[in-house]
Write a structure and sequence with these properties.
The structure holds 2 protein chains of 2 kinds.
Chain A (H helix, E strand, L loop, with lengths): L8 H9 L2 H10 L2 E3 L8 H20 L9 H10 L4 H29 L7 H23 L4 H12 L8 H9 L6 H32 L15 E3 H26 L29 H9 L3 H13 L4 H4 L11 H22 L5 H27 L9 H13 L1
Antiparallel strand pairs in A: 1-2
Helix pairs in contact in A: 3-5, 3-9, 4-5, 5-6, 5-10, 6-7, 6-9, 11-12, 11-14, 11-15, 14-15
Chain B lengths: L1 H21 L19 H13 L22 H9 L2 E4 L8 E4 L13 H7 L18 H10 L15 E2 L7 E2 L20 H16 L3 H30 L5
Antiparallel strand pairs in B: 1-2, 3-4
Helix pairs in contact in B: 2-6, 5-6
Classes of the chains: A mainly alpha, B mainly alpha.
């Protein structure tokens, strides 16, 4: 019936009509993957696992949550106290968001280090940037749903950013709110979108994977797979390696969920939203802090908003800003150092975002912001031109075999 | 709107500076329930409930607690029924359309001392006593903060001018709190003979409020321990499986 080598008659019958088994075989069994992927390559599929977890726990939470300003806060406490294992589902969801971002950020920095955005993977990279932008919007709206003080005031600050747009800014903000202040219509539309956007992310992840499978994974050497000796099938080699990585990462996840579930949140969000009382210190969740720091580094509001969005969208241009033809930073001695400076700079920005913009924090925040953009706009193009890269290995398998005796010693 | 945002960001800047710089850092107490896999001390929780009931409940609600929850801190069902029945709960409307009072049942929530926020403010010179069933997780370093606050009343230094009806407390943001010093030695009489010092009552009631904020703590810790043991075994097995699968590959 078909030449795909399936022996089970039911599998054969189905596959002849709907080739899902052929598809699975093609994209797992027969999908050639570089044999030298390190554990840094676990984070992509791990992010996918967290996307699924967020959707599953989210769907369960919605069964008990009430999106209304008078009931939302109480319905969260209802979940925490009266729903069987409601605390578990909610903590898995709230800490899952943090872990999802952690995976994605490490995944992005891995791409930066190994040049995974370079030809022919530019669209793959850009789809990833769109995914992280939508993730941020989703996470922000999710944080509003408990209707605590940080929910309300965070929503107020962030939606107000759009008022910086000349002429149409204020009408846009009114339109976003569904009124003249953050109120019930805002909460309900955020709820609706918070439920919708994850499925948009799923669609984008499918495209991300289609683009990935077109040319296969990049690898730590950054050189192309040149023949069958360089690659191994994804399954079982990387399925098992990924599962081991998941288990290790989940220890961290479960540490938060079971032993420190509110550490990554803010205690003010256990105070019900009160439009008349501004919290002492309005801060977003940790994963948005670097962008918050960039927003506040600029003295002009419009400038801050533009720079904040530019900080993400500049990643779209990366394939063209990086002028080096060598992908992996392993062979780029100068770029490698600037890469780590960027990592430090991002952490500094996060730290600044968590602190009030006053005194020395303003100065550091501005320097870190300028450096962030300088990295992409000045350093990357220049280093690519000026740097002399180390000689690249002939092939993945040659490099792997050369490393072998060393490892045995 | 531009001004609103600037004002918002400015207040986000200015207030914590005030709040953070003047209030004293809370004392650090070793809480049994905050240790890894930690549990509550039932006797302490019950003493704490007594302090809440006899002292705090005069002004503070604990609306997320139901009487039935008290079985979790070691009261028997009969005791919980008796505790609930000692309260009059407003119910209704009945078939005649009238509201009526009836004795409490274990399924009732703890009744609030005031009918609404306005009534609470009116009775407390404008201040609103926060709900205590959630307060520990709604404050930074919650348990230590509440404990320190209750212990922290002292005479105001001469350079501080207190507002009307305010009391000096260095642990409170702004150092002036509308709640007067309410705990005094022997304020309550413990059935188990524990000496009711201020520190003892503060510790007991803070433990009780910690439980009230996060009643799932013990279940969470117990399940967390099982999950972690499972994960360690899974990591071992997966690592062995990974080594086995990759054994034949030169890499």
């Amino acid at each position: 019936m078909s030449s795909n080598g399936f022996t089970n008659p039911i599998v054969k019958w189905i596959d002849y009509r709907l080739p899902i088994f052929t598809f699975m075989k093609h994209s797992l069994d027969e999908y050639p993957t570089p044999k030298n992927l390190s554990y840094w390559w676990n984070l992509g599929s791990l992010a996918g696992v967290f996307l699924v977890l967020q959707i599953v726990t989210g769907i369960i939470l919605v069964m008990h949550y009430t999106p209304h300003t008078t009931l939302a806060f109480d319905s969260i406490e209802h979940i925490m106290r009266d729903v069987n294992y409601g605390w578990l589902i909610r903590y898995l969801h709230s800490n899952g968001a943090s872990m999802f971002f952690l995976c994605v950020y490490v995944h992005i920095f891995r791409g930066l280090y190994y040049g995974s955005y370079k030809a022919p993977r530019e669209i793959l990279w850009m789809l990833g940037v769109i995914i992280v932008v939508i993730m941020m919007a989703t996470a922000f709206m999710g944080y509003v749903l408990p209707w605590g003080q940080m929910s309300f005031w965070g929503a107020t600050v962030i939606t107000n950013l759009f008022s910086a747009i000349p002429v149409v800014g204020e009408p846009i903000v009114t339109w976003l709110w569904g009124g003249f202040t953050v109120d019930n219509p805002t909460l309900q539309r955020f709820f609706s979108l918070h439920y919708l956007l994850p499925f948009v992310i799923v669609g984008l992840v499918v495209l991300h994977l289609v683009a990935l499978h077109q040319h296969g994974s990049n690898n730590p050497l950054g050189i192309d797979v040149k023949g069958p000796q360089d690659s191994i099938p994804f399954h079982p080699y990387y399925t098992i390696k990924d599962m081991f990585g998941f288990a290790v990462f989940f220890v961290l996840y479960f540490y938060w969920v079971f032993f420190n579930p509110n550490y990554l949140g803010h205690p003010d969000n256990y105070i019900q939203a009160d439009p008349l009382v501004t919290p002492a210190h309005i801060v977003p969740e940790w994963y948005l802090l670097p962008f918050y720091a960039i927003l506040r580094a600029v003295p002009s509001k419009l400038g801050g908003v533009i720079l904040m969005f530019a900080a993400i969208f500049i990643l779209f241009l990366l394939p063209w800003l990086d002028t080096s033809r060598v992908r992996s930073a392993r062979f780029r001695p100068i770029y490698k150092q600037f890469f780590w400076l960027l990592v430090i700079d991002s952490i500094v920005l996060g730290w600044i975002g968590a602190n009030p913009p006053e005194g020395i924090y303003i100065v550091i925040g501005r320097i870190a912001t300028i450096y962030y953009f300088a990295h992409f706009l000045i350093i990357m193009p220049l280093v690519g031109k000026l740097e002399r890269p180390l000689p690249l290995p002939e092939s993945i398998s040659k490099a792997v075999l050369k490393a072998q005796p060393k490892a045995a010693e | 709107m531009r001004k609103t945002l600037i004002a918002l960001i400015a207040s986000a800047v200015a207030l914590p500076a005030l709040a953070a710089s003047d209030a004293k850092a809370p004392m650090s107490i070793s809480w049994s329930h905050l240790k890894p896999f930690g549990t509550f001390d039932r006797a302490e929780l019950q003493r704490g409930y007594q302090v809440y009931k006899e002292v705090c409940a005069a002004c503070h609600a604990a609306k997320y607690l139901a009487f039935r929850n008290l079985t979790e801190i070691g009261f028997s069902e009969a005791e919980v029924k008796a505790i609930a029945a000692s309260y009059q709960i407003k119910d209704g409307p009945n078939d005649e359309g009238e509201m009526f009072d009836r004795p409490g049942k274990p399924s009732d929530r703890l009744p609030s001392p005031f009918a609404n926020e306005k009534a609470a403010r009116a009775a407390n010179s404008g201040a609103y006593p926060p709900d205590l069933s959630i307060v520990v997780k709604a404050r930074h370093n919650g348990a230590n903060y509440v404990y320190s606050l209750l212990n922290g009343y002292e005479d105001a230094p001469p350079n501080i001018k207190l507002g009307d009806g305010m009391t000096y407390n260095p642990y409170f943001p702004g150092m002036q709190i509308a709640m007067p010093k309410i705990l005094n030695d022997e304020q309550v009489t413990y059935a188990d003979g524990t000496k009711a010092t201020i520190a003892q009552m503060a510790k007991d009631v803070t433990a009780f409020l910690s439980w009230a904020s996060e009643p799932e703590t013990e279940a969470r810790h117990a399940l967390g321990m099982k999950v972690m043991i499972f994960m360690l075994i899974a990591i071992g097995l997966l690592y062995a499986a990974k080594r086995r699968v990759w054994a034949g590959v030169e890499h």
